[in-house]
Amino acid sequence: MKILYPFVAVLGLIVIATIGSRAGMEPLFGIVFPYLAILIFLGGFINKVVGWAKSPVPFRIPTTCGQANSLPWIEQACFDNPSTSFGVTVRMFLEVFLFRSLFRNTQADVYDGPKLRYGSSKYLWLFGLLFHYSFLVIVLRHIRLFADPIPFFVKILEFFDGFLQIGLPHLYQSDLVIVGAILLLLLRRMLLTNVRYISLPADYFPLFLILAIALSGMTMRYLTRADVVNIKQLAVGLATFKPVIVGDLGAVFYVHLFLVCALLVYFPFSKLMHLGGVFMSPTRNLANNSRMVRHINPWNDPNLKPHSYASYEDEFRTFMVEAGIPVDKELPAETPAAE
Amino acid sequence: MANKKVDELGVSVAREPSLMTGAIPTQDWWDIPAVFKPGNYCYPGKPEMVAYHSKSLPGKFGEPRVWDIESDDWKLPENWKEIIINGFKERLDKFRSLKIFMDCCVRCGACADKCHFFLGTGDPKNMPVLRAELMRSIYRNEFTKAGKILGKLAGAREMTFGVLKEWFMYFYQCTECRRCSVFCPYGIDTAEITMIARELLHLVGVNTNWILEPAANSNRTGNHMGLQPHTLKENAEYLCDDIESITGIRITPSWNRKGAEVLFITPSADLFADPGIYTFMGYLLLFEHIGLDYTLSTYASEGGNFGLFTNNELMKRLNAKMYAEAKRLGVKWILGGECGHMWRVLHQYMDTMNGPADFLQVPKSPITGTVFENAASTKMVHISEFTADLIRHGKLKIDPSRNNHRRVTFHDSCNPSRAMGLLEEPRQILKSVVNNFYEMPENTIREYTFCCGSGTGLNTGEIMDLRMRAGLPRANAVQFVKDKHDVNTLSCVCAIDRATLTNLVDFWVPGTQVCGVSELVGNALIMDGEKERESGLRFEPLEGMEG
C-alpha cells in the first residue's frame, strides 16, 4: 500500500495530463496550471518559512560534534563545534552543500556475544548527493528555456554536462545520474528493513514523481524530439506574462509540465520543505557560545523564582545552627518561661 | 539487579527476532500497541509529589492521584486530549526547533541504528525517527493541511489513549543523549522532542516518581537526595575522615561561607553514593592542594537538575538557586563538578533562564591567572577545564604511578560531549594523572559516545533489564578495551554515569570499576605534609602495596 498508492497517484497524474492536453485543454495545462502551481509553491513556501520564523529560538542548543572553544592550547573543532558566526557559516555550508552529517553515517550490526559493530556506510550520503546535485544541474539547465539570450553560465553548465558527447543530441550526465540515484534511493527504501519499515507513502510519492518528471523530460529530448522552439516560446511567454501556445507541443510535454506543477504544489506541504528547514535548524545554525554570550529567550518568565534561601533557612535553621553552618538570621533567643 | 541473567539477555539481544537482528515486523508500527508490564516502565509519581510540584507550578503537573500504568484507566482528566493538543500548539509557538523537527524529517533512516535503545532492544519505535513519528503523526493530524486532508496517507493519526501510552513508553526510553542528532542531515534532535513530549505528558499527570521525587527534594532541601544541611556537612566530614586516614591530611571544607572567592557546586550524589564519594574526595584534595578559597553550599547543594526531565519551568526554578546562592554569598564565580545533564543545563540554558549573572566576575583561576573567556557570561567553569588549566601550568604535584593499579579508559558523557564539546579537557587530565590510558573504539567516544543507558531519570531499579539493554553499546566498547588492553577502570565526568555505569559493567563487564576523573586526580596528587600512601581513595591497595 505504502508503495502502490503513491505509484498509482503518479500514474493518475500522467493520465490526467495526457487526456487533458489531448482534449483541447492545452491552455489549462500549459498556462493556468503552471501559474497556479508557482503561486501555490511560492505562497506555501514563504508561509511555511515565515511560520517557522514566527516561533522563537528560546535556547541556544547546537549539537556539538567536536571539541568546543575552550582553553587556548586546546584545538577547537571550529566547524563541527563552531563558536563564531564564521564557523557557523562554514558548518552550514558543509551541511547544505556536502551533507556533512550524512557523511558520518555508519551501520550497526549485532553478533553473538552479544557484540556490536559499526561499519562505515557512505552510500546514503553518495546517493543523496548525486540526486540533489543532478537535480540542481537539471533545474539550472532549464533556464535556457526561460531566458533569451541564454545566460553564459547555463551554456557552460550544458557543455560540461554533455561533455562525454555520447549520442545526438548529446547525453547529459545529469539525466543518467538523477535516474540512477532515484532508483538507488528507491531500492534502498524498499530493501533495507529499517528504512522500509519507517517509510510512508509520502516518502515514495516524491521519488516516483521526480522519476516520472525526469523520464518524461528525457523522452522529449532523446526520443520524441519535442519542438523546442515552440516550447521555448511558451516558456519565455510564461516568464514575461505573455504566454502563447504555438502548435502542438505533444502529450509528453504536457505530462512533463503537469508533473512539475504537481511537484511545486506538493512541495510546501510535504517533507520536501527540508530544503528550507535545513537552514533554520537550531542544532546546526547556532554558535556554541552560550556561556560566552547570553542568549535571550523572549518568553522567559522573570517572575519564576527559586524556592528562596530565606524559606530554606527558616525550615532548617535549627539544624544549621547546631551543625555550625552560618545562617542569615540567628535563632530566636530562648524566651524565658512565663512567670 | 537485572532479572535476566547476562547470558540470557545476551542471547536475546543477538538472536531473538527484532529489527536489529533482521526480522521484519509483520504489522505497521501504528498497529502495534504499547503494552506495559512489570519491568518495562518506571513507577508513576506519588500523589504527594505531584501535589508538591503543582503548588509552585500550577497546571504543569496534572492531578495528583494513584494510578496503575498497566490498567486501561489512567484516571486522566476528562479533557486530556484537549490539554495535550493545546499544550502541543503552545509549544509549537514557543519552540522553533519543534516546528522544524516536526516538518523536516525525510525518514532517510540515518538515525535508525544510532540509538542505544534501538541497538539493545531492536524495538522499531526506538529508532529515533519512529520515536519522533509518534508525535509527528499527531502534529500532522492537528496542525497540517496535508494531514487534515489526506489523513493516514500523509502519515497522520488521531490522538488516542493508545498513542498516549506509546508516548509514555517511548519518551521514557530515550535518554536525550543527542547521538541521533549528530547523524541527522537536518540536525533533528530527539532530545528536544522527548523533552517536549514529557512536558505534555506532565500536563495530564502522566509521570514517573523517580523524576518527581528527586526534583521535589531538590526544591526543598537543595539536593536530589533530600539531604538536610547538617547531614550534608556530616557526610562531607566522614569523607574527610577517610581522606585523613589515607593521606594524613585533615581537610575542613566550609559551607555557606560568605565572601569566598568561588562557590563549588557538584551533584549531591558525590557526597553520598559510592563511587561518587571518591570523586568528591578528589575535589577536596585538589582544592586543598592549590589552596583555593571556596565554599560549598547546603542551599544550592545539587548540581544536577531533574527539572530538565520534566518541564522547562521546573528546570528554571531548580537551576535558579545557583545564581541566587552565588549572589547571596558574594562569590566571584562558580565552579561546577563532574556531571552530565547538569552541564547541559549550565551550558545551554542557565544564562538564558536565570541570567544575566552581572553580580559575578568573569572566572579567573586564582592559581594560574587564566581567564575563562569561554564562560565570560555564564561565569561558571567546569572542574575539568579548571583542572586541565592547573596541570598545563604545572601547578599540581602529581605522581601518576599512584594510579598504576588502574588501566583506564574514558567514557564521554552525552551532554558534555554533544551539548558542550568538552572532549579534550578530561583527556588531558587523564594523560597526566594515569600511566595507562586507552581509548575505546572511535565510533563510541567523543561526539559518537554512547549513553550509559539510564540518563534522564531512567536510573531506577524497576527497569533494570531495559537499562542493561540500552547500556549494551557502551558496555560492549568497554569489553573491547578490556579484552585488548586489560582495562579495569572506566572513568567519566558524570554523577549519573558513576552510579549507572557501575550497574552496567557489573552486569556485562564484571571486574571493571567506575570512577570520576577527579578521583584519579586526587589519588595522584602529592599533598604537602602527607604520609606515605598505601591505598587509593577507596582504600584499595596501590601497586606494590598489595598484601
Protein architecture, described:
The complex is a heterodimer of chains A (339) and B (547). By secondary structure, chain A is mainly α. Chain A has 2 domains: 277 residues, Transmembrane di-heme cytochromes, Chain C (Fumarate Reductase Cytochrome B subunit), CATH 1.20.950.20; 28 residues, no CATH class. Chain A contains 14 helices and 2 strands, in the order ααααββαααααααααα. Chain A has a two-stranded antiparallel sheet. In chain A, α1 packs across α12 and α10 packs antiparallel against α12. The radius of gyration of chain A is 30 Å and the shape is elongated. The mean pLDDT of chain A is 94. Chain B is built from 23 helices and 7 strands. With 547 residues, chain B is mainly alpha-helical. Chain B has a 4-stranded parallel β-sheet with strand order 2-1-3-4. A 3-stranded parallel β-sheet of chain B has the order 5-6-7, with helices on both faces. Helix content of chain B is 46%, strand content 5%. In chain B, α3 packs across α4 and α6 crosses α10. Chain B has 2 domains: 201 residues, no CATH class; 310 residues, no CATH class. The longest helix of chain B is centred in the middle third of the chain and has 19 residues. Classes of the chains: A mainly alpha (339), B mainly alpha (547). The interface between A and B is large, with 104 and 124 residues.
Question: What's the SSE pattern of chain B?
Answer: HHHHHHHHHHHHEHHEHEHEHEHHHHEHEH
**Number of helix segments of chain A?**
14
Name the CATH class of the largest domain in chain A: Mainly Alpha
**How many β-strand stretches of chain B?**
7
Notable features of this structure?
heterodimer; A: 339 residues; mainly alpha; Fumarate Reductase Cytochrome B subunit; two-stranded antiparallel ribbon; 14 helices; 2 strands; 58% helix; 4% strand; B: 547 residues; 2 domains; three-stranded parallel sheet; 23 helices; 46% helix
